[in-house]
Amino acid sequence: MDDPRSLVLYGVLAFLMVASLRRAFHNPKLDAIPIVRSSKLAGNYWDAYNFPVNGLNLIKAGYAQYPEGIFRVARLFRWMFIVSSPKLVKEIGDAPETVLSFHGGVELNFPIKLLIGPAVAENHYHVHTIRTNLTRNLHACFPDVKDEITDAFGDVVQLQGSEWKSLPMLPTTMAIVARVSNRLFVGLPLCRDRTYLQNNVQFALDIMRSRRKMDWFPYFLRPLVAPLICDKDKTIAVALKALSPLIEERLSKEKELGPDYAGKPNDLISWLLEDAEEKERNAPSLVLRILLSNFAAIHTTSMAFTQAMFDLTTRLEHLLPMREEADRVIAQEGWTKTALNSMFKIDSFLRESQRMNNNLAAAMVRKVVAKDGFMFSDGTVLPEGSMVCAAARPIHYDSSIHENATEFDGFRFARERAEHGATQDLNQVIFKRQMISTGPDHLAFGTGKHACPGRFFAATELKAMLAHVVMNYDLKAEMEGVRPPDAVSGLAISPNATAMVQFRKRIDL
Ligand code: HEM
C-alpha cells in the first residue's frame, strides 16, 4: 500500500465498480417491475453486497408479495429478475436458445468460459452424450452400478458387529457417489482410485471458489482477472495423468480395429469418443469433458442423497415401508433397473426430499439474448442482456400448489400415483409424479428444453442407493428429531456439511 501506484490502481478499481453498479441499477424502462428490498432503508447496493447472506429471504419475500408475477432483486452489477407463477416459469423453460439463452445464463452466473475454458463453453457435445448414449445405456450398465454401490457402501461404511456407527453424511455420500458415477464414466479400476476421485471433488471445489471470487468483479473486468483467480491447472494436470493412458489406448485400438472393436468398454469415455469432433478426439479435450461431467454429477447427487438421509432419520416412520417395498420387489423381480420402476415409495420419498430441499433458491437462470428483449404473457418485457430465473424454492413450498407444502410427506407422490391412476390416463399420471418428471411446479432438475439431462442416471443411482441402505442398515439421527440445518449462500442451498447419521447392520425385530 506504500506504493502510490497501488493507491491509484485501487482508486481506479473502486471508481469502476461504483460506476458499473450505478449503470446496472439505473434503467427507467424497468420501472414497472417491482423491486424487493431487505428493508425500506436498504439500498440496492447493500442488498447486492449482502445477497450471499440474504438472497433466499429476498426471493421468499418477493414470492409472497408477487405470487403471480415477476419481481427483481439487486445482485452485484445487475438486476436478477425472478418469475413466480408456474405459468411464466413454463415460458422460460419453453423459450428457444436464441431468445432466452441457457448458456448465456450459465456465463452470467457461472462463467465457464473463464473458469474452465472456451472449448467447453462453446461446444456442448458432452450434454448430448449424457442425454443420449449415457441414458440409453443405463439398463445395460445397471449391474455395474449396483455392484459399485454395494462395494462402495461396504468400504466406506465399514460396520463391525451390531454396534451403531456415526458417519459424517455429506463426505460419506460424496465418496460413494464419486465411485458409483465413475464406474459409469471411466470404469474399473480407475473408479476406485482415491487420488483420481479426490481430484474430481477438488476440481469442483476449486472452480466454485474461483467463481465466488469472480462475483466481486464487474463483468468487463472478469476476463482480465480470471487468469489471476482461476485455480484449475493443478487438478486438470492430475486428471490428465490418470486418464491419458486410458484415452490413448482407446484411440489406438479404434485406429487399429475400427470404431466398434470387440470388447470396447461401455462407458462415458467411449460414448464421448463417438460424439466428439476430430479436433476433440484427444486426451486433453476429453479430460475436460470428463471433469465437467463429474462436476455436474457428483455434488448435485451427493447433496440430494444427503438431504434424503437427513429426512429419513428425522422421519423414521418411512424406513420400514420402504424396506418392505425394496425386499418385496427385489424378491419378485430380481435386483434390476426394471425393479426400480416398481419402487413407488422410494421414488416418491426422493422426489419429496428434492421438493423440500432442492439446492437452488432460484433455478433456470437464463439471459435474454433477443435484440427486442423477451415479453412474458403477462406483458412484462425484459430487455436484452437481462438475467431471469424461476423462484424454485418458494414454488416448492407453496400450499396452493402442493397440499400441506411445508410438511415433509415422503409418500405423497406414491399416493397421488395410486389415487389418480385409477381415474385418469394411467401412463400420464404415473409419469407426472415420478422422480424424473419435471414441470413448472417441480424444479429440482429445472424444466423445459434444458431440464437436467443427467436426471435419469441420477434417479437410477439415488433410488438404487436408497434401496440398498434401507435393505441393509438401521439408521438414526445424531440427535433424535433434529434435522441438521442447511447452509445457504446466495442462490445455493446445501445440506449441512458436518452433520452425522448413525448406521447399524439391519436387525429384523
Ligand atoms: C440429483 C442430481 C442432480 C440435480 C439436482 C441436477 C440439477 C440440474 C439442474 C437444476 C440443471 C439446470 C436446468 C435448467 O437450468 O433448466 C441441470 C443441468 C445439467 N445437468 Fe444436472 N442435476 C443432477 C445430476 C446430474 C448428473 C448425474 C449429470 C451427468 C451425468 C448432470 C448433468 C447435467 C448437465 C450436463 C446439465 C446442463 C444441461 C444443458 O446444457 O442443457 N446432472 N442439472
TrEMBL record:
* A Pfam match: p450
Using the record, list the residue span of the signal peptide; answer none if the entry has no such feature: 1-24
Residue positions annotated to bind heme are: 452
Ordered alphabetically, the record's keywords are: Heme, Iron, Metal-binding, Monooxygenase, Oxidoreductase, Signal
**Record-given protein name:** Cytochrome P450
Q: Which cofactor does it need?
A: heme
Which InterPro entries does the protein's record reference? Cyt_P450, Cyt_P450_CS, Cyt_P450_E_grp-IV, Cyt_P450_sf
Q: What is the lineage of its organism?
A: Eukaryota, Fungi, Dikarya, Basidiomycota, Agaricomycotina
Superkingdom field: Eukaryota
| Membership in a protein family | Belongs to the cytochrome P450 family.
Write down the species: Mycena metata
CDD domains per the record? CYP503A1-like
GO MF, one term, reads:
monooxygenase activity
